[in-house]
Amino acid sequence: MPELDWVGKKAVLNHHREVPFHLLKCNKSLSVGDAGSGNLLVQGDNLLALKALLPYYAGKVKCIYIDPPYNTGNENWVYNDNVNSPEIRRWLRKTVGKEGDDLSRHDKWLCMMYPRLSLLRNFLTEDGVILISLDETELAHLRLMLDEVFGKANFIGSFVWNTRNTDNRVKTYLSPDHEYIIAYGRSHGASILGRRIDRSDFKNPDNDPRGPYVTDPLTGKATATERPNLHAYNMEQPGTSNVWKPDPAKGWITDEAGYRALLADNRIWWPPNPARGKPRKKRFLSETQERMPASSFWTEFRALSGAKEVGDILGRRVFAFPKPISVIQKVIDHCAPPDCIVLDSFAGTGTTAHAVLAQNTADGGSRRFIVVEMDEAISRDVTAQRIRKAIEGYGDTPGLGGGFRYCTLGAGLFDQAGNISPEVRFADLAAHIYFTETGEPIPKRAGRTPLLGVHNGTAIYLLFNGVLGDKRPDGGNVLTSITLAGLPQHDGPKTVYGEGCRLSPPRLKRERVTFKQVPYGIKVT
Ligand SMILES: C[S@@+](CC[C@H](N)C(=O)[O-])C[C@H]1O[C@@H](n2cnc3c(N)ncnc32)[C@H](O)[C@@H]1O
């Protein structure tokens, strides 16, 4: 398989594994509405933010939509589109080393994207889909990179959408009027949902007892030489003298036996004016799936301006090119089932969050969003405010309801020396340990219990912060005969994390306990 190489690639290939885990701190004053809605806006570099979210959402997200910087090199945008923001420059220098100073802007973009895409993949359910907006600047690079990160076989396809209805005079003789949304699945089985059928297209002109239907052509695609049996008969409308011969270049879609079966079952629609139409096959609403294949070509958004939409919501122009909300709503309708989590780690003005709320209102869904924006001012003054207005309403536009929690990145889970940071609570460490031990998010637990969950038959326990009620040093955080007896029962192997262990190796073996010492036995990345 052809592979893409670029300066700095080696440095970032495994970088996502080395990114330290951080805590997420909730900011109540910037949060809005129902805190239990499951919606989240995280302010911070998405590399750290995604790593912080992973223990809670790994393998749980059905739909990721991202709109990363296109890397056009256009410095006039409100946000830097050329991967030169101070945060990313600092990050590149730290991660790629001195070489980071000399990277071309394409190398920088690829270095920035690779570890983030690698992390994003871990969020997807087996049947989940990632969709990425892009123009042609990095398209070829991105496709090769996605082949590497997601697997070539998991490429689903590209949506192409018409972005404008006036000439785009950035090039002399070619006006780029479209952008791409590239879709990959987590696995080969991943599929997009397709588009909803439009019920109003279905009619019942001849009162067929099977109800309304649309019609599909009966004309085929093969010549008489290729498929003689599809040219071997005429179609004759019963009770009339109307006859249709097969098109010599195309024939019919079925042979004579198939035609007779359709005829016997009254599945052929006859044109009212035989000189101007051809027989067609009925397709009944009652026999049609709710969804049809999604067209890859979207023309209906050409007159829309995301900047105007956001300007109308916030009362001021803040962003040059946010996406029109209906584009993202269409992405969500096609790719995010009604009860899933939608993740966008390049949130910008928060169009994805707004589109999730709008689509829920449109189809009664209960999708939740997680969006991440690095720029503090954008996140606080634009993203959060836009989503707040969407929830509460603005002008004559009624609110869509719901709420979200606003979070920032807190301390690292571990300090430089590998000790657990003082801010870390039992629930934080529990989520981290369960995730690093199993690769899965911690299951919901009933109340305060040292039993984090059972995975593949092994129970995982954590003794930390005196979870058993004994907070003395050398007390409840240490595995002794007493604390072992106090653990919720499990008939099978046990992994116990604690600050110390007073049980002998033969006793541990008898009890089928693997002991791991906190913090040294905890995987840090
Ligand atoms: C192209 S804009 C997204 C626009 C968005 N789809 C909308 O409709 O408003 C990209 C956004 O990603 C943000 N961004 C860039 N690098 C980031 C990073 N490493 N982590 C989080 N956000 C980042 C930028 O600040 C910018 O707001």
Key phrases:
525 residues, alpha/beta, Rossmann fold, 3 domains, binds S-adenosylmethionine
* Strands side by side in the biggest sheet: 1-19-2-16-15-3-4-6-5-14
What is the helix fraction of residues, given as a range? 25-40%
The rounded distance between the terminal residues' Cα atoms is 30 Å
The portion of residues forming beta strands comes to 15-25%
Q: Can you list the ligands bound to this structure?
A: S-adenosylmethionine
Give the biggest sheet. 10 strands, mixed
Low-pLDDT residue intervals, each spanning 5 or more residues: none
What is the CATH first-level class name of the largest domain? Alpha Beta
Q: What is the mean predicted local confidence, pLDDT?
A: 92
Structural class: alpha/beta
- CATH homology-level superfamily of the largest domain: Vaccinia Virus protein VP39
Number of domains: 3
CATH fold group of the largest domain: Rossmann fold
Tell me the number of strands.
Answer: 25
How big is the Rg? 29 Å
Task: Tell me the number of helical segments per DSSP (H or I, 4 or more residues long).
Answer: 14
Q: Which architecture of the largest domain per CATH?
A: 3-Layer(aba) Sandwich
How would the global form be characterised? Answer: globular
